[in-house]
Specification:
Strand content: under 5%
Low-confidence stretches: 146-152
Number of strands: 0
Helix content: over 70%
Number of domains: 1
Mean pLDDT: 80
Structural class: mainly alpha
Radius of gyration: 19 Å
Amino acid sequence: MREKNSIFGHFACFTAYLIFGLNIVVCKDLTSSGVISPLALFTLRSLGAGALFWIISIFLPKEQVERRDLPKIFAASVLGFFLTQISFLMAISRITPMDCSIVASLSPLYTMFIAAYALKEPLSAQKIGGVVLSLCGVIYLILNSVTAASGVIQTTPAGVLLMIANSLCFSLYLGIFKPIITKYSVVTFMKWIFLFSSLMSLPFSAKEIVHTDFAALPLSYMAELAFLIICATFVTYFLIPVGQKRLRPTLVSMYSYVQPIVAIVVSIYVGMDTLSWQKVLAAVTVFTGVIIVSRSRQK
């Protein structure tokens, strides 16, 4: 039974991060089209995924959420979904999919510092060296984006900084709210997360959503929107906790490297990005730093 659970955990994590990699490319295409704003797209994802979680909860054993935990879940929704997704959707129109995936790979480093503060894990010279190396890679990416040749798609320093904020918010969410995340089932916790995030964004995006003629949108954009709501939001936010319950945190974090590989390969294949030696150098520097930190954490 343990081996079966382990296999299912590996499958859940691999599938989730595979979808996250595709999510970068799809979001880039949809937001760059100008048919819908980042905030309206966030609201649609919240409403769609939230509705699916609430529907599923009807058929599962009822789980009551304690009233004192609702403010904590609201705060978790702000940090772990609202700020995380808004910063990502704002960044994706200012950064190429390849650069986006490189910066997103820094999440394990943020987790290290959060663990050092919250869990009192020691900071070794190896960890600090890895962080500095990855930071150099990101700085090089920012400097290279300023002097890059002009084109249709180009990374800006604002896009890089927004992606850093995205990863940092999600890492803080996992570190701060881990007790409340593990207290309730995935469906129960997520249905409240998406309910709160929908209520936060609706007042600002309801007018745009109501006046958007979805029937007139090209079929390709409707397919991308459906993918973002069902696969990149509902399925992934269901699978990640499933993997966390069946695998060690180290194994779960290793699957995050599937995301940049998928995003880079797909974005180059569809002509959304190009491979340059500057990007290769930045990617190697960032990934090497992350690997150094990960090996140190394992020891």
